[in-house]
Amino acid sequence: SFRGTWDHGAPDVAQYRVSWGPMGTPDKLQTIVDGDVNTMVFNNLTPGTLYEVAITAIYPDESESNDLVGTERTLLTSAPRNLQVYNATSNSLTVKWDQAKGKVKQYKIVYKPATRDAMEQTTTVGGKTTNVVLQKLKPDTPYNISVAPVYAGGEGGWITGSGRTKPVSTVRNLRVYDPTTSTLNARWDHAEGNVRQYKIFYAPADGGLEEMTTVPGNTNYVVLRSLQPDTEYTVAVVPTYSDGDGGRVTAAGKTLVRGSARNILVYNPTMNTMNVRWEPAPGPVRQYRVSYAPLRGMKPPETIVVPETIRDILLERLTANTSYTVNVVPLYADGEGNPIEGEGTTLPRSGPRNIRVSGETTNSLSVTWDHADGEVYQYKIIYSSTDGDPIDEYTSVPGQINNVVLQPLQSDTPYKITVVAVYADGDGGQLTGHGRTVGMLAPQNLRVSNEWYTRFKVSWDPAASPVLGYKLVYQPTESGNPLEVFVGDVTTYTLQNLSPGTTYDVKVFAQYDTGMSGALNGEGTTLYLNVTDLTTYQVSWDSFCVRWTPHRSATSYRLKLNPIDGSRGQEVTITASETNYCFNGLLPDKEYNVVVYVQTPNLEGHGVPTKERTMIKPTESPTEPPAPPPPPTIPPAREVCKGAKADIVFLIDASWSIGDESFNKVRQFVFSTIGAFDVISPSGVQVSFVQFSDEAQSEFKLNTYDDKALALGALQNIRYRGGNTKTGKALKYIREKVLTPENGMRRNVPKVLVVVTDGRSQDEVKKAALDIQQYGFSVFVVGVADVDHQELRNIGSKPSERHVFIVDDFDAFEKIEENLINFVCETATSTCPLIYLNGYTSPGFRMLEAYNLTEKYFSTVKGVSMEPGSFNSYMSYKIHKDAFLSQPTSELHPDGLPHSYTIIMLFRLLPETTTDPFAIWQITDKSYKPEVGMTVDGSKKTLSFFNKGRSGETQTVTFDGEEIKKLFYGSFHKIHLVVSPSYVRIYVDCNEVEEKPIKEAGNITTDGFEVLGKLMKGDKKSAAFQIQMFDIVCTVTWTSRDRCCDLPATRDEAKCPALPHACTCAQDSVGPPGPPGPYGFPGIKGPRGERGTSGPPGQSGPRGEPGPPGPEGPHGPQGPNGLSIPGEPGRQGIKGDTGNPGMPGQMGPPGVSGPPGAMGPPGARGLTGNDGVAGARGSPGPLGPPGTPGAPGLEGKPGKTGDNGLPGSPGIKGEKGERGDMASQNMMQAVAREVCEQMINGQMNRFNQMLNQIPNDYYSNRNKPGPSGPPGPPGSPGERGEPGPGGRSGFPGSPGVQGIPGERGLPGEKGERGSPGVGSQGPRGFIGPPGPQGDSRTGPPGSRGPEGSPGSPGRPGSPGVRGPPGPPGYCDSSMCASIPYNGQGYPEPYEPENGPYQPESEPYVPVAPVETGRPEDEFEDYRMGVFSSEYAEHMRWKRSLPENSKAKP
């Protein structure tokens, strides 16, 4: 071939005609190509020939150009070069060469053996291939090889070479090894060449049939099987190629011998076991198979296989008294040896011996016996009553136990008991015994002692049999429902809450498992609590008096006066020192019934009645009614009260001791206070007026008036009611009836309560006042005249100097009016309402209540559930994923946030809480863009606070570190985030962590929302977490007051209040030790006391030697078999011991032996590999849920008494006490006389108590208190405490040199209207009686009656026996334990859970300056401080000043 190329002619050539052929020949080849082609390849030409080529251009008009002629010669053919023959095998040679010139179509290869007569063979390959493998050659033979190229025109030149195949090969290193009794292993090294397989020939060496097996050519080992034992074999291996077999290699090997065990021996038989022993079989025994079966019967044999090292075994679980045949067969690696046989017989079964029945009770018997011989599987116990129709009941115990307690049985019943030994294969012998249960014995010898007004102690001798306990049934002898109490296994019990002066029938029953014994009867009578010698005197037309002989234990008397016709009467309570009382304001000529009740601090006796009729009323001249009051003048608002927004309630004392005139003064005081406010409406101040005596009455509600004039006008229509002073009841009424949304109470506005009272409350105040303060009220209290200072402190908020006011009389209101109004208006204008937190009233926001997350309302909030908090008694709220709790900012913070505040939050991050950043709390605008908030980031373990600065930019401070990381560990933690205009400080669990600077914040928008748990990314999506507390306090100093008592890790029980809902008992509650009291007089020798409780354990003795193991305790009996009809379900039995393993099942027949698998030859042991690289530490697993609270630990042993500590340092000198009021000499003498009488009577009271052995402690059947211990050593001085309550009045001293003023004494109880003297009553004058009852409302008071003529002086009455003074204001636990007091079950005055409140300072006691005739120098300690300009105006009337305010010369 060759290529021809030409240049184009004219541009419009349509085609070219190409003609070519050998030069000088007429035959030409021809083709037509397009006009744009100018080259062409001419193929299939003759080599070495000259060709002529002609090109003719053809135009569109079919005209043609002249031919363009050219010539070219093809090349000549050539031969391949460099022939090579290599890679010889026994049947192949490889040939290769270099490419021949020209276009070779293929190569021809011719080869034949070098011998003369050999036949020639030919093969071909493609023209581009230059090598070939010649196969199927003869081994060890020389070959001649020729190669020529083949062109299209014929063959080219030849090239010749030669090569020789290799001779045929054999395997190498054949070995026969590892013989058994029927196998031999053979292994060899591979033969050379491509071996297709190996043939293995084997036959006995001494002659026999030769057998053959094959393995693939890539395998070099074989296992020869099914050989004869103890025989020598010849083994030959031949490799097989594709063209035939290779050489044969031979080796020899011998199989091992096979035999049987020898000298079998069956010995040592028992009822269900035998031993088998034999001597070993010859050869490499792997195991022995032992088969055994009874000689008679169809039971299949059982088999045991043991290693060849064991030749003595124990056959178990055999049938008693049975002959067995035993076979032993040796097992080799490839088969079994010959069996050897033996025989043996088991022993017969036996039964238990020596049965004993003991331990008789009302419902049980104990049974013991000696064990039966052999291995007993269990003992079956059959028992039944021998009375009537016996029904057998069954129980069982394991075979290693030889005793049982049969229960429940019938009392006083004989029983027959049979014990059967049960073996694994059946029952053995049995043994029978008899026993009888005892009857249900009653207790004996009932005694009643320690009688008191509400209790007495019942004692008895115990029943002779063990009991579950005792039941007491008691009821009044005359009438009443019986009461009962189960007291456990004790022999004394004190019956409480009995009626005074009442005889009770008492029955004591012994409680057994099977029922109850008969009753032990007796009687007991409580002490009488009533007055005697009740008489009337000084009877007139509108009054009469009663008197009586006092009761020694009375602390007050309740008098009830009722007309016989059933109309409204009177009721009054007076102190125990009064033994008479006069009823006034009665109707003439009307018969009345008077009942007098004796009262103690928590008891009231039966009433003693008497009747009296008033005289006929004389005729009086009519009086003119007074003119109606003029309409009120509306006073202007004060500057300090403008802008006030609050709910204000006035609670006014309207008891008898106030009177109409004083009530009008109080009403005018309220008029002035309301008049100081700017706006009375729902957008400003709302006011309510409540007066109280025996009951509280709301004169108008918070939402009654929305106009100042209407509210002031309503005040003038309020009428005085009268009655007793029940302040606690009134406070409770305020909390439950006045402070409600339906009565106008608003959320998140300051709430103020103003209380005005003139004396001591006649009910419990402390708890009701605390409830009001905890509800968030700021309570101001005004006390008039002789009031109880401590009671006022309890009612008022803290600090007391701001909230407690005291005046001498009702005319002195104007002296405190301005300060009180200023304080009230300051509270009402605060942007932060008051909340009660940890015993303090502080400005702030209860955020959980704002979201309705309270125990009462949480169920109305979607996506919230209540769960136990940091303690089980605290409740927390789980906010679930995407709950998205939000509230409008205008409702929570209508005036925005204060400049400085503290965020208090107790929360827990849960395992399912997201690790994405989210805001636990944040304030957003109406588009939910954040403005202020606190965020946590679980991925970075950080907590951040952000707000907007004054210029609107968002500023963020982020806290991290180890303390912050604790928040993400899954436990509850408490956060205090203190935010000020210049810094943000964080506390974790009451420990300061870090402080960071920040710029002053701008105000927030109030048209947005406040959201809990909002994710920082995503619209209205929130995270899951648990929250227990969330408050915002409007101060930066709150953290100093918080002790984190609500966290287990930081709680100090000595300093923290009791947990909420915690159960406390009066007889067991222990407060901090008080100071040692004075030594008392030695008492008389008392009667012999009951046996005391066990003392503390002594010091540990030396360790004793280990004792023998005790016997195993009895097991619970099996329940009786049911009858044919279903009965009531029995009680659940005691859990039994784990049962013995069941008997083995019968062995199945042996299966057909499968063919043995091919055993591969053991490979060579490989080298130990290197240790791998240690894996990466796994990520920590998710935090598990909190564990359940652990059970309380055991009570520790009492510690040793410590050594006396060093004497404490002297305490700080106390402040000078308040100066007592000036009094006349007669008054001082009366006070001194009263104090002396109180002290003498108090000592006599104590002495009488010792004589009468009145119990002073509530009896507990758990532990009787021992004698008082010696006074403890003086403790280290504590921090200076807040002032305590005032003491009793001291002795009046004679006038002399001015001494250090004593502390102001605690005033006595508020007295009601004083009773007249003992003498006869003079005629009544001055104020006339109240007018008759009007039709629809109280009429105007009557006009002043004419002055009556003075009555003749009454004859002095004989002095009555003065009653003992009332006990101090506390509750003796021996008198009030378990008795409801004040409706709350408290045995003493209520104290908050965090302990009694200690006032921060003396109460605010403003009084008017006193004019006196004493010399000025006697007042020099007071004069300079009282009128000093250094004190605010409202402080200048303080009755006492600190000692350092004394004037200096």
Brief digest:
This protein is mainly β and 1449 residues long.
Main sheet? Answer: 9 strands, antiparallel
Low-confidence stretches: 1064-1069, 1120-1131, 1218-1224, 1252-1268, 1288-1295, 1312-1323, 1332-1341, 1367-1449
Helical region count?
13
**What's the overall geometry?**
flat
Strand percentage, roughly? 25-35%
Proportion of helical residues: under 10%
* Rg, alpha carbons: 59 Å
Mean pLDDT value? 77
Structural class: mainly beta
Q: N-to-C terminal Cα separation, in Å?
A: 146 Å
Number of β-strand runs: 73
Describe the overall structure:
By secondary structure, the chain is mainly beta. Strand 59 (834-837) and strand 60 (840-846) form a beta hairpin. The chain contains 13 helices and 73 strands. Mean pLDDT is 77; it is low at 1064-1069, 1120-1131, 1218-1224, 1252-1268, 1288-1295, 1312-1323, 1332-1341 and 1367-1449. The strands form 17 sheets. Strands 59, 60, 61, 62, 64, 69, 70, 71 and 73 form a 9-stranded antiparallel beta sheet that branches. Helix 1 runs antiparallel to helix 2, helix 1 packs parallel to helix 7 and helix 3 (727-738) runs parallel beside helix 4. Helix content is 9%, strand content 32%. The longest helix has 28 residues, at 1225-1252.
Give the topology:
Elements: E1 2-5, E2 15-22, E3 29-34, E4 39-42, E5 50-58, E6 68-73, E7 81-86, E8 93-98, E9 106-113, E10 121-126, E11 131-134, E12 142-151, E13 154-155, E14 159-164, E15 172-177, E16 184-189, E17 197-204, E18 211-216, E19 221-224, E20 232-241, E21 244-245, E22 249-254, E23 262-267, E24 274-279, E25 287-294, E26 302-307, E27 312-315, E28 323-332, E29 335-336, E30 340-345, E31 353-358, E32 365-370, E33 378-385, E34 393-398, E35 403-406, E36 414-423, E37 426-436, E38 444-449, E39 456-461, E40 469-476, E41 483-486, E42 492-495, E43 503-512, E44 515-516, E45 520-525, E46 532-537, E47 544-549, E48 556-563, E49 570-575, E50 580-583, E51 591-599, E52 608-613, E53 646-653, H1 659-675, E54 685-692, E55 696-700, H2 708-716, H3 727-738, E56 751-757, H4 766-774, E57 777-784, H5 789-795, H6 800-803, E58 804-807, H7 813-828, E59 834-837, E60 840-846, H8 847-850, E61 864-868, E62 875-879, E63 885-888, H9 889-892, E64 901-908, E65 918-924, E66 930-937, E67 942-948, E68 954-959, H10 962-965, E69 972-979, E70 983-988, ...
Parallel strand pairs: 53-54, 53-56, 56-57, 57-58
Antiparallel strand pairs: 1-4, 2-3, 2-5, 5-6, 7-8, 8-11, 9-10, 9-12, 12-13, 12-14, 15-16, 16-19, 17-18, 17-20, 20-21, 20-22, 23-24, 24-27, 25-26, 25-28, 28-29, 28-30, 31-32, 32-35, 33-34, 33-36, 36-37, 38-39, 39-42, 40-41, 40-43, 43-44, 43-45, 46-47, 47-50, 48-49, 48-51, 51-52, 54-55, 59-60, ...
Helix pairs in contact: 1-2, 1-7, 3-4
